[in-house]
# Entry
Amino acid sequence: MSDELTEHLRRLGLDAGQTRVYARLLTTAPATPAELIDATGLPEAQVRQALHELARTGLVRALEDDSFVPLQPAVGVGRLALEREAELRAAQAAALNAYHAFRRTVWTQATDDVVEVVTGKPAILPRSDLAESSATEEIRRFDTPPYHRPDATSNPIELENLGRGVRYRVVYARASVERREYYEENIRPCVSAGEQARVLPAVPVKMTIVDRRLALVSLPATEAAVNNAVLVVHPSSLLLALEGLFELAWRSSFPMHVTESAPSPLRPAERRLLALLGAGLTDDNIAELLGVSRRTLTRRLEHLMSMAGTTSRFQLALHASRNGWL
# Structure
């Protein structure tokens, strides 16, 4: 058994003796307890205890002749992972309880119980990444310039989170969608990976809500150059208000994501055109983002209005939304 596998098994909760016994079985099974004692040099009691625990977790099983063989490890490793997850959750709860007790009895000042101020890019970026990476259920976000990092055109954390089942709902300001590089390298890949995206002419604040645990709120663009800071809002009535603000904006925004499973008479390029049209972008912006000429864009819009039986772009966007074209 490789050193890497040994390390991973230790992380899952196997002790040194259990790991040695399991490693030996992977090379010499079936083997009796006596043979394993000779092969590992461990005391009899430790070998038998190791076999008992390995059998309990589903990594090995006993044969009729009192020898043992390894089992297909999916069930056993899954059980170990669940046990470690339960221990981590208990540790998290204990740490939170200890902190709350500290705030009640030792340090009773409440200056950062609700809102914490993080200033400067060296502090903001890792704090934001850590918060987003810790999401287990859902990220809700208002996306608008300016951005705190120079490589804001890519979003590997979101793509990783989407891959492990974290839901994303993002309301973009029109200014974000108008940035061609940002649209091509950030918005489109995230939408393709499962992000639910909507657009408003402007969003009230730049914000990320992680599950229901905290919100990261940036200062407005007009203040960012003077005071580069992020507010971390912890569970409170203020956090509930921010959640309500997001849900209100979400209901009033225009869908930009494409539901691939939904029936639609349109090609993907046509659905992208409608999404950008609903974002309120100018013809020049839409043509640039789609990589077509103004004349081609006009022809495509006329074709879509003919399909929908409409005479204006507003009617076209309304028809597309009501008939599942997006």
Notes: The mean pLDDT is 82. Residues 301 and 313 are 8 Å apart (CA to CA). The radius of gyration is 28 Å. The chain has three domains: 1-108, 115-255, 268-322.
